[in-house]
Write a structure and sequence with these properties.
The complex is a heterodimer of chains A (137) and B (377). By secondary structure, chain A is α/β, with parallel strands linked by helices. Chain A contains three helices and seven strands. In chain A, the strands form two sheets. Chain A has a five-stranded mixed sheet with strand order 1-2-5-4-3, with helices on one face. Chain A has a two-stranded parallel ribbon with strand order 6-7. Classes of the chains: A alpha/beta (137), B alpha+beta (377).
Chain lengths: 137, 377
């Protein structure tokens, strides 16, 4: 993995469940996705984690290698009040739905996404239920 | 050709297109899934799956319950292979909290998970043939599945949405009646699989409906994250049980069936052979199961795993299932993320079904073996 132009760190798999982890700037997620695609990784998932006390929104990109079994998690953080990150759906079309889901649940805007409409919530949903300040009844 | 270009080309050729809504309730989707089809006669120009009809926000529920209170939710995400779902969650939390699992419990988990995989594949087998117009195999498959449900009911108390695994083991031990029933089931089911091959697999009509239909390439699987029998039907021998071994799978002998054709028949064969491989696993695990505790003593009721981010993946009946739990060291999870196989498998339908005839696309849809709550969560 050393030849990959990505700041990946080896992680204790037995403890954490991933082999490598990387933190990138929001602008680099597309490049990271393109590199992972080149290396034969498959897209596992794209998801968010809300960190209101830091005013940050984390986006996690999970990849797995179908031949080698490696697991890689690439993370980026954006400002919570301005959550925007480029879409990787043109690199991995499977990201389309994951990003739509992250958009509706967290309000993360994936710029360049072809159809950022709610996937699981009603079409007119204007709330983001997985944000920590969304109170579940 | 993009869908817009395909529609434009059809228009230029003087063909009229029309929109056909398949579902939300349709016998060929077996669940609340709607597919918005743009048709040119009998050919599909664009198929857009519309999900969310039975969305229940399981991930948010994870944040309002303690780690243990969330356990009954897990089996309701994919109600046909509930065991594997509980397994993924329980194992992720065990990883987070550093809880050991006794060997006997690991064997019990493998036996029950594999029985559940067979019962899930049997539902697919029956339902898939129903999609193709064959009714009888469903009745046979449900007959076999009933035997598994009886066995699992005996030890778990439920027939479908099992909540049997606990942090550090399982909630109660298996008895000799269960183990001998599982032992007897193996030769019985082997005979049944032989009969299914004679009755169904070699049937010429079935093969004409499946061979060469609905091709899905390795590359498409990687781009969409499609896993399980879909990926293995495209020639990749990817199975979490081998690639990221967990429980006691590394001690057991079994093969990973895979076929390079990538068509509906390949996915059919993969699942049929997987049932035979699960029988092999059950046979070995029942013979090897050690005596000893089925639970680790002293797991606290109010669990507080150290802060951090932990993942655990298992091979569910429909493919790779990944659970990510984020802990902030409190009594409730900070975040529970479910990466479910049906969600990823359905996303390739739009690309894979383009230009197909409607009847063939239904075969493709059935060969993906979708469970809708697994998409909607």
């Amino acid at each position: 993995m050393a030849h990959l132009a990505l700041p990946l760190e080896r992680v204790d798999y037995a403890r954490r469940g991933v082999h490598f982890e990387g933190h990138v700037e929001p602008a680099q997620v597309v490049l990271a996705a393109a590199l992972m695609e080149q290396e034969g990784f498959a897209l596992d998932a794209v998801t968010g984690v809300d960190w209101p006390q830091d005013n940050q929104m984390e986006i996690v990109y999970d990849y797995f290698h179908p031949a080698l079994g490696w697991r890689v998690a690439i993370r980026t953080r954006v400002r919570r009040d301005l959550p925007e990150v480029p879409s990787i759906s043109h690199v991995y079309p499977g990201a389309n739905w994951h990003e739509r889901e992250a958009w509706e649940f967290f309000g993360i805007h994936f710029s360049g996404h072809p159809n950022l409409a709610p996937l699981l919530l009603p079409d007119d949903a204007d709330y983001h239920p997985l944000r920590k300040d969304f109170a579940a009844a | 050709m993009t869908p817009a270009e395909a529609i434009e080309a059809a228009r230029r050729a003087g063909n009229e297109t029309f929109i056909l809504n398949l579902g939300p309730q349709h016998p060929a989707t077996h669940g609340v899934l709607r597919i918005k089809l743009t048709m040119d006669g009998e050919y599909i120009l664009r198929a857009e799956p519309v999900a969310g009809y039975i969305h229940r926000m399981h991930e948010k529920m994870g944040e309002n319950r303690t780690w243990a209170q969330y356990l009954p939710n897990t089996g309701r995400i994919d109600y046909l292979s509930a065991m594997t779902y509980t397994h993924a969650y329980v194992a992720a939390v065990e990883r987070a909290a550093g809880i050991e699992v006794p060997r006997r419990a690991e064997f019990i988990r493998v036996i029950t998970s594999e029985l559940n995989r067979i019962s899930s594949h049997l539902v697919w087998f029956g339902a898939f043939l129903l999609d193709l117009g064959g009714f009888t195999p469903l009745l046979y498959a449900f007959d076999d599945r009933e035997k598994i449900l009886d066995m699992l009911e005996g030890i778990t108390g439920s027939r479908l949405t099992y909540c049997y695994y606990r942090f550090g083991g399982v909630c109660n031990d298996v008895d000799d009646a269960f183990l001998s029933a599982a032992r007897d089931f193996v030769p019985y089911m082997r005979e049944r699989l032989k009969m299914y091959d004679t009755l169904v697999t070699e049937n010429l009509i079935l093969r004409k409906r499946l061979e060469g239909i609905g091709p899905i390439s390795k590359k498409m699987c990687c781009k969409y994250g499609a896993t399980g029998p879909v990926m293995r039907g495209s020639g990749m021998a990817y199975d979490v049980r081998r690639m990221e071994p967990y429980s006691v799978y590394s001690e057991l002998e079994f093969d990973i069936p895979h076929y390079p054709e990538g068509d509906c028949m390949a996915r059919y064969r993969v699942r049929m052979e997987e049932m035979a491989q699960s029988l092999r696993i059950i046979e070995q695990a029942v013979a090897m199961i050690p005596a000893g505790p089925f639970q680790t003593p002293g797991v606290p009721r109010a669990l507080k795993p150290p802060a951090g981010d932990y993942c655990f993946a298992v091979e569910a009946a429909r493919g790779r299932l990944l659970v990510r739990v984020v802990s902030d060291g409190k009594e409730m999870p900070y975040r529970v993320r479910w990466r479910t196989p049906s969600f990823c498998n359905i996303t390739l339908f739009e690309e894979a079904s383009r230009g197909m005839m409607l009847a063939d696309a239904l075969a493709l849809l059935g060969s993906l073996d979708l469970v809708i709550p697994d998409i909607d969560r």
